[in-house]
From TrEMBL:
Domain of life: Bacteria
Keyword annotations from UniProtKB, A to Z: Repeat, TPR repeat
Start-end of each TPR repeat: 99-132, 133-166
Keyword Repeat: yes
A Pfam family the protein falls into: TPR_16
Name of the protein: Tetratricopeptide repeat protein
């Protein structure tokens, strides 16, 4: 068990060294934003930081990719998850290192009830951008959908460790903590 955990940790470290940051992830531009997000107690500033992080995650130098991504988001926002999924399939085919493409595709899978596919895509997002608090939040929702509240709580707590300003995620985690650990001394 200890050897397996060590190997998993080693693999994750190697992936962060070997796998280049995908287009749209923002790379080192994100580091100071995440540090500020964890440090601030100002809700308005935190919201501004979150928006900037999302902008960097969405950014991509490929104009065609941005066009397809926007079409997918438009379809998603209009509850046409099948069309959104098709667009996000194209996005991840055009650039498999684009974490936000995988994240959006995971959301479409989730909305279509394809939880296994959503989990696979979320794992891909987190391998490309381990600080993706949106993907961690989604991961928690998928785990809830498949009846794994303990795993959901871990995912929500991981999202909160990165972004402590996720009020609804904190509420969900607190509710789960009360439910999962009801009657259990922590």
């Amino acid at each position: 068990m200890v050897i397996r955990r060590f190997m998993t940790l080693l693999l994750m470290v190697l992936l962060t060294i070997v796998v280049p940051a995908g287009a749209g992830q923002g790379g080192v531009r994100l580091d100071p934003l995440f540090a500020a997000l964890r440090a601030t107690t100002d809700a308005a500033y935190a919201e501004s930081l979150e928006e900037h992080i999302w902008d960097l995650w969405l950014d991509n130098p490929n104009a065609e990719m941005i066009r397809v991504m926007r079409a997918g988001v438009f379809s998603f926002n209009n509850d046409d998850y099948t069309a959104a999924l098709a667009a996000f399939d194209t996005v991840v085919t055009l650039d498999p290192t684009y974490a936000e493409g995988w994240n959006k595709r995971a959301a479409a899978h989730y909305m279509l009830g394809r939880n296994r596919a959503a989990l696979e895509d979320l794992r891909r997002v987190l391998s490309l951008e381990p600080r993706h608090f949106g993907a961690l939040t989604e991961l928690g929702l998928v785990y809830l959908a498949v009846g794994q509240p303990e795993a959901a709580l871990k995912a929500f707590d991981a999202a909160l460790a990165i972004n402590p300003h996720l009020v609804k995620v904190r509420q969900q985690a607190d509710n789960l903590r009360r439910t999962v650990y009801a009657g259990v001394a922590l």
